[in-house]
Amino acid sequence: MTAQQDIAKSIAALSFPGQAFINGKYVNAVSGKTFDCESPIDGRILTKVAACDATDADIAVKAARAAFVKGHWRNMNPFKRKAIMLKLAELMAAHAEELALLETLDTGKPISDARAVDVPSAIQSIQFYAETCDKQYDELAPRKPDSLAMITREPIGVVAAVIPWNYPLIITAWKIGPALATGNSVVLKPAEQSPLTALRIAELAAQAGIPEGVLNVLPGYGEQVGQALGRHMDVDMVAFTGSTNVGKLFLRYAGESNMKHVALETGGKSPNIIFADTPDLDACAANSAAGIFYNAGQTCNAPSRIIVEESIKDQFVELVAKHAASWQAGDPLNPKTAMGSVIDKGQMDRVLGYIETGKNEGAKVAAGGKREMTESGGYYIAPTVLSAVRNDMRVAQEEIFGPVVVSISFKGEEEAVKIANDTIYGLHATIWTSDLKRAHTVARAIDAGTVTVNNAFGSDITTPFGGYKQSGIGRDKGVHALEKYQQIKTTYIQL
């Protein structure tokens, strides 16, 4: 039996979760409405999913609040809470192939990536935050002997976590890991394009021993259930990853409701600065191509703007175009495929529209630039390199969120930094140079939450992730993520 035949057999045995998960059990939307969960691989309908709305959101929030008030989770011995979260990670590992298949079918990402990256990363996130449960210490402020000032960390309450479609499993773990570790109740809203793994994780969490009402999952459309959670008077916090425009809506919802806390990660247009003293241009080009074409370019911190020194610009663009050939779109269920589909037809049309806009603005297509695999019924775009781009073009300023990279040239270090910072975003940046002093100087000058040097990939669960400017508020990952899910209380005692 071939690897693809084996995968086909596993898919035939899959059970697709489609109901909402509220108060410890699967339920239909109160309205009875559903929507089609379509696979971008070939356009097939995988299942019908509950189309939750404000009524369902209210039921889920009440369940989360009741669980929080009862305190079975937030007041649990932290050693026990850790053990339950570690059990969830164990169950995810036991169901790793199922989760990988659900993620690939739902998003169109290669099964090899889902197996090797998405599922292990999500498991590692849950494990990481489980281990923080019994390692969070309170403080005593320095006082005179006749008084005591305690500084304690308390869970914030009911957290609404709103998840995007590009890395649904990983980002679900980034949100629920620290939220649960700090004792909160969670209402999770997955993107309507990719709800399946979140719904499956909810059932595994219940099996692990997380009490009823502590983790709820509401599939549905953003303008209905997402907005309802953002405006809900009994939601204490929204943790959102997605577009800048929707992030701004959540800030508005918070102001118009109960001034709930809002944490945002809202995308980027990350500069990838290539200096002429880069020791191995071919290796740099290969890494740069991988950075932008991985996950079909649907990565918020992808190095989507190549900012290359004038003296090597033509050579470097040719090298990136050469390496783009190894990222040609293919069947995501083939373990040899490097790049799969984009998430849906709307996103495909949006990305192709940006390519046409770039051409109309004067950019040159050095590679790709078109739709591929139309016979599949899915949504595939060739890895695309646009050269001769100016930083004031739309393709250089706006987040395309597809397998498209633009190339902009510069003549000196000062101009490179100016171009890099000339954007509303500030999520990530990459610098390529053999000069250590330059690496430090430029890294310090760039407005970005993460700067990597001589590698487009440079973070893991231990390092904070988030951005400057309109790339968001707050941080995911690392121990710093715990802070946003907690309130700080001072208790002053006169002895």
Summarize the helices and strands and which ones pair or pack.
Blueprint: H1 3-12, E1 20-22, E2 25-27, E3 34-38, E4 45-50, H2 54-70, H3 78-94, H4 96-107, H5 111-130, E5 139-140, E6 147-155, E7 158-162, H6 168-181, E8 185-189, H7 196-208, E9 215-217, H8 222-231, E10 237-241, H9 244-256, E11 261-265, E12 271-274, H10 281-293, E13 305-309, H11 313-324, H12 345-361, E14 364-367, E15 371-372, E16 380-381, E17 384-387, H13 394-397, E18 404-410, H14 413-421, E19 425-426, E20 428-432, H15 436-445, E21 450-453, E22 468-469, E23 472-473, E24 486-494
Parallel strand pairs: 7-8, 7-10, 8-9, 10-11, 12-13, 12-20, 13-18, 17-18, 20-21
Antiparallel strand pairs: 1-2, 3-4, 5-6, 6-24, 11-23, 14-17, 15-16, 19-22
Helix pairs in contact: 2-8, 3-5, 3-7, 4-5, 5-6, 10-11
Explain how this protein is built:
Helices cover 39% and strands 21% of the residues. The protein has 15 helices and 24 strands. With 495 residues, the chain is α/β, with parallel strands linked by helices. Strand 1 (20-22) and strand 2 form a beta hairpin. It has helices spanning 3-12, 54-70, 78-94, 96-107, 111-130, 168-181, 196-208, 222-231, 244-256, 281-293, 313-324, 345-361, 394-397, 413-421, 436-445, and strands at 20-22, 25-27, 34-38, 45-50, 139-140, 147-155, 158-162, 185-189, 215-217, 237-241, 261-265, 271-274, 305-309, 364-367, 371-372, 380-381, 384-387, 404-410, 425-426, 428-432, 450-453, 468-469, 472-473, 486-494. It is globular. It has a 7-stranded mixed beta sheet, with helices on both faces. A 6-stranded mixed beta sheet has the order 9-8-7-10-11-23, sandwiched between helices. The protein has a 3-stranded antiparallel beta sheet with strand order 5-6-24, with no helix packed on it.
